[in-house]
Amino acid sequence: MPNKQHARVNKPRRERAEATPDATAKTDTSTDFIIGRHPVEAALQSDQQINKVFIQEGLRADAIKEIEALAKDRHLIISQVPKQKLDLMTDGQNHQGVVLAIPPFAYATVDDLFARAEKANEAPFFLILDSIEDPHNLGSILRTADAAGVHGIIIPKRRAVGLTSVVAKTSTGAIEHVPVARVTNLVATAKELKDRGLWIFGTDMNGTDYRQWNAAGPTALVIGNEGKGISALLKKTVDEMLTIPMVGHVQSLNASVAASLLIYAGFNSRHPL
């Protein structure tokens, strides 16, 4: 049975009239790229603004033909280029013969995340990522967040990976569907979320077994940095810590793996059988 803290998850907090300046959306100033067949196809099927399509010369795969058809439907410029040019554009990453040149990835605001939950007529379910540095981790978390119906992700502007081509490729298109808000101060944003009715849950070696977690109410889940975990100041804003019990020899999990387990624990309590 859930303990007293679990029961309070469904109790509303008072509403806050306005958002903090930390919720202001920002974009980078340089051109970015989407690479790989699945991410490119997802971008072409979305409302993503695209400047140009680059396709490796000589490729005749059905997937490439489908990408060309989607690009032509959107009246985009398609350039057939040597593989070496794509290698240079993507710093040698596995581009699978196709690259999109796009404007900088756009960030959402915290208010956008609330609006998405309201549109779905659901209690907000957000992720707060405390200084995740590996773009593959962020991409994987985006993928799981999309699958489990997370309404949005909040990341800090400094000392953390942002939305990049590697993140986009790893997310296999989820970056087009899960809004990401980038804020100046995670602690101030967490306090804002609490004022707007959310309960904040963190992850730690010591805490409540995550299998007892009730995330049915307005919820934000904090995932800490790959090495240092959740910062001390942010921990002070957390309502309750959750832990993932482990009986094997390895007593730690990759950040994206831990996030996936917890996200689906939240999904289970929000969508019980």
TrEMBL record:
Family annotation (InterPro entries): Alpha/beta_knot_MTases, Ribosomal_eL30-like_sf, rRNA_MeTrfase_TrmH, SpoU_MeTrfase, SpoU_subst-bd, tRNA_m1G_MTases_N
Region (Disordered): 1-27
Domain named RNA 2-O ribose methyltransferase substrate binding: residues: 33-108
Any one GO CC term of the record: cytosol
Alphabetical UniProt keywords: Methyltransferase, Transferase
Annotated Pfam families: SpoU_methylase, SpoU_sub_bind
Protein name, UniProt field: 23S rRNA (Guanosine(2251)-2'-O)-methyltransferase RlmB
Organism: Furfurilactobacillus siliginis
